[in-house]
Amino acid sequence: MSSVPRFWRSLGSRYNLEGTRCKECGEYYYPPRNFCVNCRRGGHIEPYNFKGTGEIISYTIIHTAAEGFEGQTPYTLAIIQLDEGPSLTSQVIGDPEKIHIGMRVRSVFRKLGEDGERGMIYYGTKFVPADPE
Amino acid sequence: MRDVAIIGVKNTKFGELWERSLRDIVVEAGIGAIQDAGVSGKDISALYVGNMSGGRFIEQEHIGALIADYSGLSKNLHVPATRVEAACASGGLALRQAIMSVASGYSDIVVAAGAEKMTDVGSEEASSALAAAADREWEGMAGATFPGLYAMIARLHMHRYGTTSEQLAEVAVKNHKNGSLNPIAQYRNRITVDDVLNSIMVADPLHIYDCSPITDGASAVVLAPADVAHKYTDTPIYIKATAQASDTIALHDRRDITTLDATVMAAKRAYSMAKLGPEDIDVVEVHDCFTIAEICAIEDLGFAEKGKGGIVTANGETAIGGRIPVNTSGGLKACGHPVGATGIKQAVEITTQLRGEAGKRQVDGAEYGMTHNVGGSGATAVIHIFSRER
Amino acid sequence: MTIGIVSYGAYVPRYRIKIEEIARVWGDNAEALKSGLKVYEKSVPDIDEDAATIAVEAARFAMARSGVDPARIGAVYTGSESHPYAVKPTSTIVAQAIGATPHMTAADFEFACKAGTAAVQACMGLVGSGMIDLGLAIGADVSQGAPSDALEYTAAAGGVACLIGRKESELAAIIEDTYSFTTDTPDFWRREGMPYPEHGGRFTGEPGYFKHVTNGAKGLLEKLGTKPEDYDYAVFHQPNGKFPSKAAKILGFTKAQIAPGLVVPKIGNTYSGSCLMGIAATLDQAKPGDRIFATAFGSGAGSDAFSITVTDRIEEIRNRAPKVSELIKDPIYIDYARYAKHKGKIRLA
User: Fold this and answer.
1) Which position has the higher pLDDT, B123 or C267?
2) Identity of the residue in C49, C99, C341 whose CB atom sits nearest the CB atom of A16
3) Bridge partners of C9?
4) Can you tell me the mean pLDDT for B80-107?
């Protein structure tokens, strides 16, 4: 990512799944949004911390890594729907053979990457199977 | 609002063009289109250029000004030039902006070009530049790649509808067959389903042959008000509809990841504007950045029932000679995908088809054609419908 | 003033490499090593784990076990010899990740394998003096052993967090007292920028581990007027399976007393987490009223000894987070190549 302020600004969201919700329509937002998609100016946004549990909507096993993720292949990327409603994109740690659509997952604290040998280390949330294998 | 017509077209060769720079290829396409149209530089009211990422690929922004300059349109003629960006839909959107400027009466003769010079950086850098079309903060930082995002679409499509890897491969096979008939295509070789399935896995279930390549290339069209088109050409091709729609930038925020709602909505708007339906379209260029993208596209554009895109493809219904020929140019897969150029190349191909000049790729008696250009994983969709008769 | 452990949390990564597998690569005698070290396999961090992620997981388990409001934490101290940054504290990452920021102090500790217990002592001081309400002390490491060196067989990954407080109703275990014995002894060290430590071979035994552990332990027993038989359990720093057994014998503690805390045969030496891991494993099954005697050792060199009495509250909180035994069952075994990839021993472009 190579931008210290940009990463620092989202630290709470990345470490602790801090998101938002709209009091007017009840919609939850992770990643957090300041502007409700349904209510727009009529919305009332407040902070909300997600529990970190959810299920896998879809997944893939990435063999050709994204920039900065080279040493990690193969890794599993998934779209996870949190129990409160919104979905996010994250790596899932675990045996790729056992990962399946609908699998329950929970959040863990892991290293996301780093900006080379001299740069910042980026930490955040990934997911593991919720039920022990 | 005036009717608009295309009076000139040109594609450069698509491929790894080591000897040519961005300026070289855009000028070739632009001048070629102007010659095809029989207009002169003095006639041009405006220039629109689709280009996704000059900044990352060649460290150059202000692309509109650059292209106008090197096309001889700025120093003496001071033609207004605008760069348009919507990731992979930059070309289609540049065409739409050009159409609107003619239709509104603001401009008369307008050039819509698209270009991308992707091979001046290494392929990791190129992939990283392309990834900016996704949500950098919340998809990119999680390790998502474009093949990865479309692979998740494919995985769910296969899970829900029974689409198979073989059916995905048939898209690539067909597009390579079409590309072998297209002199400017990056890949002119024929491939088989086994070739696709045995190629290396990029993001399960997408193999390298399920993915469009990194390509240099440029395309241009010249637009004129329909009323005067016959002064320039015997075969003006008319714009029956221009439509555009947006959707969430991140795939995980979509209503349903196996349907590109932006495509569905833009198609609805286009069909309504043209007063046509999918059954009226004779030939279509869709956005096959990955094989699964073509399958979803033919479903979302109304050429196949949702979930049946794979079967329709495997049955040969989208081949030249089939019920609805798709990607006669070879698509993004075989013709190549110089990002900003693709939307314009699609318009060049459909124009060529409707003029009856597509040679071995010709769809006989084509009257109505469509182009479908998508940005990112579906956050932007731009659709145009063209006709031979006004 | 009563000070003690309000809560604790442990974390051990799931991957393991067996002694035989390391020995295979370097042509060593696995059987001789296993019987000499009494270590059979060691824990290996995942490719995206480091001392900070392990510290966070352990701290989060400690918070879940206690249920206290993180805003009450006045200090976070993390001890490690594999902090991810040379300059930029691990403790602030942990503090952010458990919601303890910003009205608190933090700093990182280093004292080889006793950095975690040094952090415990610092928290005891701040809590005991009334300066803070609760302090979180963590020992976590992803220690590196130089390839083909003896330490490669035991240098493992893991961490433990202890929440220190003084409200009697909140204490799961009372720390009656602590005593330390410290000298300038260069038995093991690592220079700035170097990837692997140096050690003095057999010099690390008598002048290092045994001198400090026995003096530290005897010092505390004398100070309190207690004897080994007054305790139900004992935990000694566990760099291998032999040293703690020998230390116990020298001091007069029995094999049965050290058994529940002796986890090194299955997971290796978790360095700053080592003695605390033994304490955590012991607390996982101790009864109210049980007394635990613990002595940590850190090269460089020093020992920290603790006398601990378990309270009734242990049974209320114990099951709210994974026990050490639960964390270390179901390991995933990997080969040397995968181990080298995870540990960053392969130089990437």
Assistant:
1) C267
2) C99
3) C161
4) 97
Q: What is the pLDDT of residues B165-195, one digit of tens each?
A: 999 999 999 999 999 999 999 999 999 999 9
User: What is the maximum span of chain A, computed from C-alpha positions, in angstroms?
Assistant: 47
pLDDT, tens digit, 9 for 90 and up, residues B220-267: 999 999 999 999 999 999 999 999 999 999 999 999 999 999 999 999
Q: Quick one: average pLDDT of C17-41?
A: 96
Stretch (H or E) spanning C341 = helix C336-342
Provide ipTM, 2 decimals.
Answer: 0.93
Q: Which residue has the tokens 């095809």?
A: B36
Whole-number Å distance between alpha carbons of A98 and A9:
35
Domains of chain A (ranges plus CATH)? 52-133 (2.40.50.840)
Rounded to whole angstroms, the Cα distance separating C343 from C337 reads 10
When pLDDT is averaged across residues C323-345 and rounded to a whole number, the result is 94
Domains of chain B in start order, with CATH, are 4-122+215-237 (3.40.47.10), 145-211+239-387 (3.40.47.10)
Q: What is the pLDDT of residue A2?
A: 65
Number of domains in chain C: 1
CA dihedral B307, B308, B310, B313 (to 10 degrees): -150
Q: Which of C83, C199, C212, C237 is catalytic?
A: C237
d(CA B159, CA B163): 8
Mean pLDDT of B27-34: 95
Q: Left, alpha or beta for B38 (phi > 0: left; psi -120 to 50: alpha)?
A: left
Contact A79 B251 (CB under 8 A): yes
Q: Domain range for residue C229? A: 1-339
Catalytic choice (C113, C123, C162, C275): C113
Output the domain CATH number for residue C250. 3.40.47.10
In sequence order, the β-bridge partners of residue C297 are: C303
